[in-house]
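Each record in this resource describes a single protein on a pair of labelled lines. With that in mind, the following record should read easily:

===
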Amino acid sequence: MISIITALYNQLELTRAYWESLLANPPSEPWEIIWIDDCSTDGTREWLKSIGSEHCRIILNETNQGYATNNNRGASLAR
């Protein structure tokens, strides 16, 4: 399985475009995407809750953890 770890902080429009591109060109192997939102305030968190895909695992941080910590957390959750 391919695990795609994506740490987020705001940038909703870029995140949506990224997701649409991934869906249009998915990996040929089984895959998951682990979204880790670092307290976005631009609607990203609400959007993540709405996408409802079997490929998504969503982590919503309660406090800002920083890019490296989020990637390490994603790696520890990856299948």
